[in-house]
Design goal:
The complex is a heterodimer. In chain A, 36% of the residues lie in helices and 21% in strands. Chain A is globular and about 45 Å long. In chain A, the strands form two sheets. A five-stranded mixed sheet of chain A has the order 2-1-5-9-8, sandwiched between helices. A four-stranded mixed sheet of chain A has the order 3-4-6-7. Chain A contains five helices and nine strands; from the N terminus they run βαβββαβββββααα. By secondary structure, chain A is α/β, with parallel strands linked by helices. Chain B is of the alpha/beta class. Chain B is built from 18 helices and 16 strands. Chain B has a five-stranded parallel sheet with strand order 2-1-3-4-5, with helices on both faces. A five-stranded parallel sheet of chain B has the order 7-10-13-6-14. Chain B has a two-stranded antiparallel ribbon with strand order 8-9. Chain B is elongated and about 105 Å long. The chains are: A alpha/beta, B alpha/beta. The interface between A and B is medium-sized, with 19 and 21 residues.
């Protein structure tokens, strides 16, 4: 039987330690081995000059078509500002109960909101976002517990409130859904 | 468990439909999409959605026209209009036509979350309101008034006809016959049913307490009045006030009550502001008020003010054919509340109950059944489970009043109408004894 591996693919420059920390937290949370890959993609084809943002839907579709046959779950990691047509921005996007997700740290940076650079906080926020989007690929929906990683966050302050792990209810749903697969 | 909210997304742009579909799905909503207004209306004819999120500009039928048609299918539909900046004017028109809100494309994720959360709250309030109204409407069936006898049918007919008016009602009947239940039936069949029915047990309160209870009081009106407090008349505004044991109120309270009934205006105890309240009065008593008027213990003017309609609730012994229905009802009621299987009653026990006099009326029967369920074998109620042994034969049933009358007269006669000695023997003070003499209209035999 093929090993179930979660693949994190970074697009653009990320520090090695930063990615390793993300990978460790994912491995810890989902209990699957995590593989790190670096890839290049021509982002200009996903750029909307009017919105000055990158089309999250198209990127998600692209990564899914490229990697879903080789990997159990794949997350594309970006540094650019993502959007979907109907929303002004997104932190990430996933196929519910699917194989692929994307997340960007662009809007997670403190300096975007006029505050001091905080690399540690950025790492924590990004961990939570990646775990959140991966949770969707495992079939988890939004939770209503403010500290659960699966709660919907529309502001960075919401992300800071939650933990980088599932609440007991989401955990048991995850175990249940995962045991069926 | 909370109801899962369903959302129908109507937009001609596939990317919008897909994005919103995923967004709402992740939030746990039930989502469906339609690519145009025609398709949306087809879907809505077969099933309803809590929220319709529709684009205002679509080829063919636009969002405004679709909204009008949806509203004609279900006026409570919550419709949220999606619009571009350029069509905000049209969105405002949609609001005037009954849309819940509008949101400008592209949405801020937080705005969308808030909007849906608020709409969900409105839906749950609407549902709660409907459930509560249904509960109140169910009271109209007065299903708690059990009976098939001609006597109870007559009472129910009177309830029905009097409920629609605003007239004062006096309900008379022995203790335990269900006078308050009849009052509730009148209230819940009346136009006042969505307002409170406030009950006051006049007999349980002293004169000053009753006054403060009925009229309310201002802070500092008397020792212990630490806060302003609304009175029962004020609380019953729009609804009904039920004054139980009306015959027990003092002469002073009778005057005050008459004044309030005439003007529907009063002041709180210690207050100087006149308060108006629109209430209907229903009174109950187990005494003969007319007799009390005749012997001067109840004001005639108040009696006529209250006694616009008189409903007499028959004692249980006059409607024995209802006993089996009542027994069945109480068995179900208590078995359910005690989470037990519904049990039955054996024929001998039921026959004995039908022969019993029930001086305490339906209340006594209810207590008997509750006790039998508690102490019984959990399968069937038998004669031994019913406390019928102490029954007094029909001819010797005497009211407490009659017994008191006899006893007081006996002691007075024994002590040659010496009030001090008789009061001492009865272990009451002299004033109480004088009151008893007055109450029972006892006369010293002429020497």
């Amino acid at each position: 039987m093929k090993t179930k591996i979660i693949t994190l693919i970074s697009y653009g420059h990320f520090e090695k330690e930063f990615l390793q920390e993300i990978a460790e937290s994912i491995e810890y949370e989902f209990n699957f081995p995590v593989k790190l890959l670096q890839r290049h993609i021509d982002l200009s084809t996903f750029y909307d000059p009017e919105r000055k943002q990158y089309d999250g839907n198209a990127l998600l579709m692209k990564i899914d078509s490229k990697f879903s046959s080789n990997s159990y779950k794949t997350v594309g990691l970006f540094r650019v500002d993502l959007y979907i047509p109907i929303l002004t921005y997104i932190y990430g996007q996933a196929y519910l109960n699917g194989q692929t997700a994307i997340a960007s740290l662009f809007r997670l940076k403190n300096e975007r909101y006029g505050m001091e650079v905080d690399e540690q906080l950025l790492l924590e926020r990004f961990k939570k976002e990646v775990i959140h989007e991966l949770g969707h690929t495992f079939g988890l929906r939004h939770c209503y517990l403010p500290t659960c990683v699966m709660v919907s966050s529309t502001y960075v302050e919401d992300i800071d409130q939650k933990e980088a792990s599932m609440c007991m209810k989401c955990r048991s749903t995850f175990e249940e859904l995962n045991s069926l697969k | 468990m909370n109801k899962v909210i369903s959302i129908l997304i109507v937009d001609d742009e596939a990317s919008v439909r897909e994005s919103l579909y995923s967004w709402f799905l992740e939030d746990g909503y039930l989502v469906e999409c339609a690519e145009n207004a025609k398709r949306a209306l087809e879907i809505l004819e077969n099933r309803s959605f809590d929220i319709v999120l529709a684009d205002i500009k679509m080829p063919g039928m636009d969002g405004l026209e679709m909204q009008r048609r949806i509203k004609s299918l279900n006026k409570d539909s919550v419709i949220i209009i999606m619009t571009a900046f350029a069509s905000v004017d049209t969105a405002v028109r949609a609001l005037k036509d009954g849309a819940y809100d509008y949101i400008t494309k592209p949405f801020d994720p937080d705005d969308l979350s808030h909007l849906i959360r608020n709409a969900t709250k409105q839906i749950s309030l609407q549902t709660e309101n409907k459930v509560l109204k249904d509960k109140i409407t169910n009271l109209e069936n007065v299903e708690d008034i059990i009976g098939n006898s001609a006597a109870i049918k007559k009472v129910l007919k009177e309830v029905e006809s009097v409920a629609q008016s605003n007239s004062s009602v006096i309900i008379t009947g022995e203790s335990g016959t269900g006078k308050e239940l009849i009052a509730r039936a009148i209230h819940s069949n009346s136009a006042r049913k969505y307002f409170p029915m406030v009950s006051v047990h006049c007999g349980a309160l002293t004169e000053t307490l009753l006054e403060s209870e009925l009229f309310g009081h201002e802070k500092g009106a008397f020792t212990g009045a630490m806060y302003n407090r609304k009175g029962r008349f004020e609380m019953a505004d729009g609804g009904t006030i039920f004054l139980d044991e009306i015959a027990t109120i003092s002469t002073k309270m009778q005057i005050e009550l008459l004044r309030v009934l005439e003007s529907k205006k009063f002041m709180r105890v210690g207050g100087n502001k006149e308060i108006s309240s629109d209430f209907r009065v229903i009174c109950a008593t187990n005494r003969d008020l007319k007799k009390m008027v005749d012997n001067g213990t109840f004001r005639e003017d108040l009696y006529y003010r209250l006694n616009v309609v008189n409903i007499v609730v028959p004692p249980l012994r006059e409607r024995t054919e209802d006993i089996s229905l009542l027994v069945d009802y109480f068995i179900r009621k208590y078995c359910t509340s005690m989470s037990r299987d519904i049990i039955s009653i054996d024929t001998a026990a039921l026959k004995r109950l039908e022969e019993f006099e029930f001086p305490g009326n339906v209340r006594e029967l209810e207590n008997m059944i509750e006790r039998a369920i508690v102490i019984g074998n959990g399968k069937e109620i038998h004669l031994k489970d019913l406390p019928l042994g102490k029954e007094i034969s029909g001819s010797s049933v005497e009211s407490l009043d009659d017994l008191e009358n006899k006893h007081v007269l006996q002691i007075l006669t024994k002590y040659g109408w010496n009030i001090t000695r008789a009061a001492k023997a009865l272990k009451v003070d002299r004033v109480t004894l004088y009151n008893k003499i007055k109450k029972h209209n006892l006369k010293q035999p002429s020497k």
